[in-house]
């Protein structure tokens, strides 16, 4: 259903699910089960309120040696919505609110709307399904990458899953996600470097623009 430019949406909710992990330090992160961390994080995210950060995305197609790079702003309001606004040269936006995805580009009066099922979408399930359900779908582990920085690694139980692996790098002092790396079943690799977190005062950006004609796909 989605073209290559929309394929990253399958993993974005993993980013939301682990964005503001309530880790008290490396020792705590190593002692806690990844699933315990995930469950505790969800409660913390609900209290955090709207937040934004800058990101740089690198995409390396399978079989290629040079990555494509884009950047922009990530905005989130968990557990409801997640939005990505890409900067020049291709200004575009993606908004996920619960089970609906909106996508549009600058100066185009037509946007696209998709209905997604968290039971069937790898990545989206990480945000919307109960932790007990996720335990049946994913293997998870965490380890110290360097002092004050922890790596959380996820892998699907089913070999046929569209997500092959994902690694999230977390600063346990600021409790921020520093980097997300993942590989899909086709071997394409995507990474996001994220910095400059700040509170987001205006939550109206989580409402789809009303000057766009939405077409369902």
Report on the structure:
The protein is α+β, with helices and mostly antiparallel strands. The chain has a single domain, classed as outer membrane lipoprotein receptor (LolB), chain A (Clam). It contains six helices and twelve strands. The radius of gyration is 17 Å and the shape is globular.
Terminal Cα separation, in Å?
8 Å
What spatial form do the alpha-carbon principal axes imply? globular
Q: Going across the major beta sheet, what is the strand order?
A: 7-8-9-10-11-1-2-3-4-5-6-12
**E-strand count:** 12
Question: CATH topology, what is it called?
Answer: outer membrane lipoprotein receptor (LolB), chain A
What Rg do the Cα atoms give? 17 Å
Output the number of helix runs. 6
Could you name the CATH homologous superfamily?
Lipoprotein localisation LolA/LolB/LppX
Largest sheet: 12 strands, mixed
Just give the CATH class.
Answer: Mainly Beta
Q: What is the beta-strand fraction?
A: 35-45%
Count of individual domains: 1
Helix content: 10-25%
Low-confidence stretches: 1-7, 9-30
Q: Helix/strand/pairing class, anyone?
A: alpha+beta
Write the H/E string, N to C. HHHHEEEEEEHHEEEEEE
């Amino acid at each position: 259903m989605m073209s290559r430019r929309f394929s990253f949406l399958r993993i974005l909710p993993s980013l939301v699910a682990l964005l503001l992990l309530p880790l008290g330090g490396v020792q705590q992160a190593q002692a806690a089960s990844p699933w315990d961390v995930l469950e505790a994080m969800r409660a913390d995210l609900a209290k955090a309120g709207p937040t934004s950060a800058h990101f740089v995305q690198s995409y390396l197609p399978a079989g290629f040696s040079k990555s494509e790079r884009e950047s922009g702003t990530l905005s989130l309001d968990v557990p409801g919505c997640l939005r990505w606004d890409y900067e020049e040269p291709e200004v575009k936006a993606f908004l996920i609110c619960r089970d609906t995805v909106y996508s549009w580009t600058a100066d185009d009066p037509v946007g696209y709307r998709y209905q997604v099922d968290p039971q069937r979408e790898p990545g989206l399930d990480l945000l919307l399904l109960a932790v007990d359900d996720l335990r049946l779908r994913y293997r998870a582990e965490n380890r110290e990458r360097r002092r004050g920085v922890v790596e959380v690694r996820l892998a699907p139980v089913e070999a046929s899953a569209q997500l092959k692996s994902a690694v999230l790098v977390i600063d346990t002092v600021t409790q921020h996600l520093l980097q997300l790396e993942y590989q899909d079943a086709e071997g394409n690799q995507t990474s996001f470097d994220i910095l400059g977190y700040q509170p987001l005062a205006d939550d109206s950006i989580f409402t789809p623009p009303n000057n766009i004609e939405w077409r369902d796909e």
